[in-house]
What we know:
2 copies of one chain form a homodimer.
Chain A: E1 7-8, E2 10-11, E3 14-15, E4 21-22, E5 32-41, E6 47-59, E7 69-75, E8 78-82, E9 85-89, E10 94-97, E11 103-106, E12 113-120, H1 131-138, H2 141-148
Antiparallel strand pairs in A: 2-3, 4-5, 5-6, 6-12, 7-10, 7-12, 8-9, 8-11
Amino acid sequence: MTSGPIHRKAKDYRWEGVAVLPYKEDGRALFKAITRQVLFSDPAQQSELRYFEVAPGGYSTLERHEHTHNVLILRGGGHCLVGREVRALATNDLVAVPPLTWHQFRATGDEPLGFLCMVNTARDKPQLPTAEDVAELKKDPGIAAFLRG
Amino acid sequence: MTSGPIHRKAKDYRWEGVAVLPYKEDGRALFKAITRQVLFSDPAQQSELRYFEVAPGGYSTLERHEHTHNVLILRGGGHCLVGREVRALATNDLVAVPPLTWHQFRATGDEPLGFLCMVNTARDKPQLPTAEDVAELKKDPGIAAFLRG
């Protein structure tokens, strides 16, 4: 019936029996100081719940894809870019990343930025921006400042 | 592309534009002092993310169903019954409720128990226990104490 224990205790944003993994395996992607934990990957559901933690000064990959992200900030705060919008994020804030929308999360404060991310288990591979895509984004001074960190 | 805003700010476990709803509409079900907020119901995903908050002394319905629950404690602590196991819960703990397994969450401390619950959007209706089911559960002294609150 069950594919795992019913209860996993948390301690300091780590969970019993949950591996702390590299953020991603794709060596082409630019990212910094970020870990990944898969909290739920339930074969009875078509979505997974992951926890990502970004150390101060770190960031996720700037990317886009067909699948959506549904994010809740679990720890600390920071900033995100979604599409052409830069937002300041605080604990418990929600962020929805629509399909094929550039996005990045940055830990811009003094403490780690930790967030839950709900995602389809079966999903397309992320697309990375070309130099032209980045140049286009940086025409917006707010986005340029965000990308500088 | 997007069915809602990209960013919803949180304040005191309430979110911009997210309604605070009754826990459930089923008048037959026994529950106490609990609210429901649907944080993500994304048509591009087959699972939803809800936030339930139980006031001190309150509890969710004792029930079971074919669909699974994947829970993260977002606020406070309490106790849960899953199957025949009673567990003390602290903030950020994970709980997985397998199919057709009796379960209940109780806010046994002095502060609210708030939890995220990931669930299939298309799901079967909960089954309520018969008097015989409850009597069977109460043969276990630990479960009996849990159900007394």
